[in-house]
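Entry 12.
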Amino acid sequence: MLRFALQKISGHSTQRIFLPATSTLMRGCSFATYEVIPKGQGREAHCDHVVKDQCNNQVANLYPKPNVGGQQKLQIGQNVSRKDKIKFLVTTLLDLKDSKEAVYSALDAWVAWEQNFPIGPLKNVILALEKEHQWHRVVQVVKWMLSKGQGNTMGTYGQLLRALDMDNRADEAHQFWVKKVSADLHSVPWQLCGLMISVYYRNSMLENLVKLFKGLEAFGRKPTDKSIVQRVADAYEMLGLLEEKERVLEKYKDVCTKIEKGHKKSKQTSLKKKKDSG
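Predicted 3D structure (tokens):
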């Protein structure tokens, strides 16, 4: 398992790699720290990058030159599976104190050895944090990812909005929606619109809910789910706009009817399959 950290020492950029002390070389060290010494420093100036541990033992040349056969040895950490890297990062994030700087530093160190930004593994990390109901951590990871210019998709935005809502930060979710999503109401997936309507509904932000729905209607967009229609109707009722409530229920009654018919049909199909198999 790997841990990475970056330090500045005497004006030089120095990388430290943390590995479990399991080898014979690290005997006597409870947790070995490896320091990468750039070329031209210390006794090992003839190497490009020399890795040394806390016991002052030379471990490996991190970037060895190709041998005669033209083959190059793997860098440290390349033999660690993706699953282990994800598990390690999740454990690290859960153990960290509630500090944005600490979380961002851990994420920076985790991706330092990747040639390409690991968007896929990070998605798995977010899913793992969601399963643990670590909504505050989810927010921090997604915001860090967005700050790197990565993950700018509606799916990522939905994860952030949901996490903000679950972290009791509905106002921040609203601000993010207005800044990043609201300008594209003509194309935003209904799933994401439904999520935001739910956020507004749960947090009694009824004026924002009605405004969002009117914006969608202005583009001629039709709700795809009965729950959306019902929440909008309820919002109008609580705001004292009963005529608007009746208008919405009448205009989109076919949405509720289609869903109910589809549910009955699927239920009948499943019952028929059970009878046939019996």
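Annotation: The chain has a mean pLDDT of 77. The longest helix spans residues 253-277.
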